[in-house]
Design goal:
Layout (H helix, E strand, L loop, with lengths): L11 H11 L1 H6 L3 H10 L11 H16 L5 H9 L11 E3 L5 E3 L2 H16 L6 E6 L5 H18 L9 E6 L2 H6 L2 H4 L8 H10 L1 E5 L15 E6 L6 E2 L6 H5 L5 H6 L15 E2 L2 H6 L5 E6 L1 H4 L4 H6 L7 H12 L2 E8 L3 E2 L2 E2 L3 E5 L1 H6 L5 E7 L4 H16 L10 E6 L2 H19 L6 E4 L8 H8 L13 E5 L11 E6 L7 H8 L11 E7 H15 L14 E6 L7 E15 L21 E5 L8 E5 L11 H12 L3 H10 L4 H10 L2 H15 E15 L10 E6 L3 E3 L7 H4 L7 E3 L3 H11 L4 E6 L12 E5 L4 E5 L3 E5 L4 E7 L7 H17 L2 E6 H6 L4 H4 L7 H7 L17
Helix pairs in contact: 4-7, 5-6, 18-19, 21-22, 23-24
Length: 896
């Protein structure tokens, strides 16, 4: 039992995401309206122009889920509710994820390990919630952090008394390099992640404080809101006191009076000790006076030190300056939570328990968020030979090419300044001369002004700027410039022969060249000595739980990118366009309104506290109403009439009369509204509105010819990712030419699931089917066939794309949807079906929805003419095109 460790098999963040994905619609329906709008703006399924990448948006969803739905708990509390199937997890399905992606039902072994994990999580908890968001370098952690802060401030502005939301943000960077990269939080165009009408609210309220230089005073107003303080740890840290200074040192020395107030450069690396030996600086004291503080730690793996696991988990370990400073802040002001952003959830191949979302290096490469990497190792070669091979190979692969107008770059790392200047540069100049490359393409950045001038720094910063002198520099000689904060998208190669002082530096330097450029799937090349290659493999193991070979091969059912071309002629169908026209007609108020406040179910508004006397025995859970803690607006008859008139934009005299003459009586209404202010919007406003206005609806239709698939605008093909086993092309050998002629308005169909693929095969091989087209993969305005519907969970009008369109021999049409059994009764799915059914009826066609298990176990078209398939099940099984097992552990069909 004592040997049980944190393992990937029981990574809580995977279970948390499984729960969220399974209940996503229900969860999002519970959010505030402002939150729904914020998420919808960043959700590509609702806003095709959304800026955030999928991993960033998923992390944002998890951030909001933990805060708004779960109530901002400690991770161990969240985990305890999950493992005990308690509270919001009471009706959840429980699975544990095995290595390789296998999911199995929660069993005794899982219970033992989760109990061990819970005890450790609780033992090492902090006084505040502490969350880790692990996104691989290049996925945009800084933008994600800024988006989370903007969300916090918008909600804090609207709900200022809700303790879950941060009113101020303290952003920590590990060093000056990353500190500069955090300027993006200040300069970032907020409208990319915040609806413009709300971005203006942020611009009017946010106050930025960038503590770049030591000695910079923090000019925050005590008890103010919406401050974003960006600093590295040395600008905030509480330091160890030295011996008492002499009078002369106080007046003239480095330990001057001002330095004792503002801090100085000396002792930046000192660890915090006990309270009696600490002196805190002006910046720390100012932060203590900011309420509802959210602490955001960028590149947390770097800030907490090399032994991240020990520093985060173990109170017996030496305290890091950063963690100790955060804890001291928590003692002196209200910290909502600490949000740590890092590149990996792993430490020595073990998952940190505080991780609540992770998107790994392997998935980032496979899904095109990062370049691929081709590591090449050299053994038993001299350093000059290594350099020649690296430069020559790099030039053969990338020479003469440009990417988005940028020249490809190769970063060459030296271990020392002298080596870079006296050995690497002369050797490189000779190699480039042999290749006919001018020496002016070399840039040296070694951190010493003797060798690296201001112009070199300017060119280094312009490596990714088209038309700049920096873009002409293709061979960059560096010393110790592989850590966070250096972003060069046009970097296509890294060369490192000598062993660096830090092993993690090999991994950090390698990942510098993985940032994406262009929409194509590109591969960078990493040139390493054999020893550095082994180090890279070991660091990938420790930090990402993967091998170098995994960077190139997805061993767990990879998705391949397919180029999908449109096949002539354009396929069209004429359907009815349906819309409702609503008219608002005024009515004359004459009859007293019965608001029925006496029948209101007040329980749904009540504040309740749940208490269990002890966890040592199975005592009952007690409930207690705590409405007394609510801060409710107290209306008078006069102010309530004014509020109602303002809301409906009508006369105060009229609203006062309506309230006085109501069947309930003004006293009963005031009592209800003053007890729960929500009743005003839920009951009183709708009652008055319907008494004064009538909404009339008219249904309109018109014929509209729809093109199933359009030619791409800027390319000869579309790109889709899919598992090879779920792809069928127009060259599929198991189909006859007559059958192929029935379909394929595109040359390749990439299905989401086996039931979708099987549905297609049953339709295309049935003699009663004249044509069938897979339309469900084209969900980004590539075709006209979509159905508008009202999403009851988000409250928005969205587009739904049915999976198939089929034409039967008798000339009739079918719109077809394939759904997993667990999705059939989903509220959103029913809303889509209702809208599709309405359009289908008006257009004289049939809408059919099949459950995944039905497709996989029956002939769904047998009703047409008996068993009509021209390819038998036995034939399918022989050809490997059909599985008879219904896979119901995951949903079938994407939520298009």
């Amino acid at each position: 039992m004592a040997n049980i460790q944190y393992t990937e098999e029981f990574a809580f963040y995977q279970q948390l995401k499984f729960y969220y994905d399974s209940n996503r619609g229900k969860i999002r329906s519970r959010y505030n309206d402002l939150t729904k709008k914020f998420l919808a703006y960043n959700d590509k399924s609702e806003n095709p122009d959304a800026f955030l990448r999928l991993p960033q948006f998923e992390a944002l969803e998890m951030y909001v889920f933990i805060k708004e739905f779960m109530g901002n708990p400690q991770v161990y509390e969240l985990f305890d509710d999950w493992r005990n199937r308690r509270d919001k997890f009471s009706d959840a399905s429980y699975y544990s994820v095995r290595k390789g992606g296998q999911i199995r039902i929660f069993d005794n072994e899982s219970e033992i390990v989760t109990d061990t994990l819970f005890k450790q999580m609780k033992k090492y908890k902090e006084a505040y919630p502490n969350y880790i968001y692990a996104l691989t370098m290049g996925l945009g952690k800084t933008i994600l952090m800024a988006t989370c802060i903007f969300y916090e401030f918008l909600l804090a502005n609207k709900y200022p008394k809700d303790k879950r939301f941060c009113h101020n943000a303290l952003v920590f960077a590990p060093d000056k390099t990353v500190l500069q990269s955090l300027r993006e939080i200040i300069t970032f165009d907020k409208t990319k992640v915040v609806p413009p009408e709300y971005a203006r609210v942020l611009d009017a309220n946010i106050k930025f404080h960038f503590l770049e230089e030591t000695g910079t005073t923090l000019h925050t107003i005590d008890d103010s809101d919406f401050n974003i303080v960006i600093s590295n740890t040395q600008k905030i840290i509480v330091k160890k006191k030295r011996k008492e200074p002499k009078p002369s040192e106080v007046l003239f020395g480095s330990g001057s009076l001002l330095s004792s107030i503002y801090g100085d450069e000396n002792g930046d690396t000192d660890d915090a000790w006990d309270d009696a030996s600490l002196m805190d600086n002006q910046r720390f004291k100012k932060l203590c006076r900011l309420p509802q503080l959210g602490v955001y730690v960028d590149e947390a793996h770097h800030l907490f030190g090399a032994d991240l696991e020990k520093q985060i988990r173990k109170k017996t370990a030496n305290k890091t300056s950063l963690r100790d400073t955060i804890n001291m802040l928590a003692e002196r002001t209200s910290i909502v939570a600490c949000y740590n952003y890092t590149g990996t959830p792993y430490v020595n191949k073990q998952v940190l328990p505080e991780v609540v979302y992770a998107y790994g290096l392997r998935e980032s490469i496979w899904n095109g968020y990062l370049k691929d990497a081709d590591p090449i190792a050299f053994e038993n070669v001299k350093d000059t030979e290594f350099l020649r091979m690296a430069v020559t190979t790099f030039w053969e692969r990338y020479g003469g090419k440009t990417y988005e107008g940028l020249n490809p770059k190769l970063a060459i790392y030296a271990s020392r300044v002298e080596e870079a200047v006296n050995e690497v540069r002369p050797a490189l100049e000779e190699i480039l001369a042999d290749l006919g490359i001018p020496a002016s393409s070399i840039l040296v950045n070694v951190g010493e002004t003797k060798y690296t001038k201001d112009e070199d720094i300017r060119n280094f910063n312009d490596l990714d700027v088209q038309g700049s002198q920096g873009n002409e520099k293709q061979f960059i000689i560096l010393v110790d410039k592989g850590k966070e904060g250096w972003n060069c998208r046009s970097l296509f190669g890294v060369a490192m022969f000598r062993n660096p002082n830090s092993k993690i530096f090999v991994l950090q330097a390698t990942m510098r060249c993985l940032r994406t450029i262009t929409d194509d799937r590109l591969t960078a090349t990493v040139f390493l000595s054999k020893e550095n290659y082994d180090t890279l493999d070991d660091e990938l193991h420790k930090n990402f739980n993967m091998d170098i070979k995994n960077m190139k091969t997805n061993t767990g059912a990879p998705k391949t990118v397919h180029k999908v071309r449109v096949l002539p002629p354009p396929r069209t169908i004429t359907l009815k366009k349906i819309w409702h026209e609503y008219k608002l007609e005024e009515k004359v108020y004459s009859t007293p309104i019965d608001f029925k406040v006496r029948d209101i179910d007040y329980s749904k508004y009540a504040s309740v506290m749940y208490e269990k006397d002890t966890i040592a025995r199975d005592s009952s859970l007690k409930e207690k109403n705590i409405d007394y803690i609510r801060d409710q607006m107290k209306f008078s008859a006069f102010s309530l009439a004014g509020e109602l008139a303002r809301y409906l934009n009508i006369s105060c005299i009229l609203t006062s009369r309506i309230l006085r003459e109501s069947v309930d009586g003004i006293d009963a209404i005031l009592e209800a509204v003053n007890k729960y202010n929500e009743i005003l919007n839920d009951v009183i406003v709708p009652g008055v509105f319907h008494a004064l206005y009538e909404v009339k609806s008219e249904l309109h239709t018109e014929d509209k010819e729809l093109v199933l698939l359009k030619e791409p605008k800027d390319a000869g093909y579309y790109e889709f990712s899919a598992k090879d086993e779920l792809v069928i092309t127009n060259q599929y050998k198991a189909l006859t030419q007559e059958q192929i002629a029935k379909s394929f308005h595109a040359d390749t169909y990439c299905f989401d699931s086996k039931p979708e693929k099987e549905c297609f095969l049953q339709y295309i091989t049935n003699s009663k089917i004249k044509e069938v087209y897979f339309t469900g993969m084209f969900t980004a305005n590539q075709g006209d066939l979509s159905v508008q519907y009202y999403d009851p969970e988000s409250g928005r009008i969205r587009h739904y794309y049915p999976d198939f369109l089929a034409k039967l021999e008798d000339g009739s049409y079918q719109l077809i949807e394939v759904k997993g059994d667990n999705k059939i009764d989903d509220t959103v799915v029913k809303a889509k079906a209702a809208a599709a059914q309405e359009m289908a009826v008006a257009s004289g066609i049939e809408y059919k929805m099949y459950a995944g298990s039905e497709i996989m176990t029956t002939h769904i078209l047998a009703y047409l003419d008996g068993m009509a398939s021209t390819i038998s099940y036995a034939d399918h099984m022989q050809q490997g095109t059909l599985s008879m097992v219904a896979e119901t552990s995951a949903p079938y069909g994407s939520d298009k």
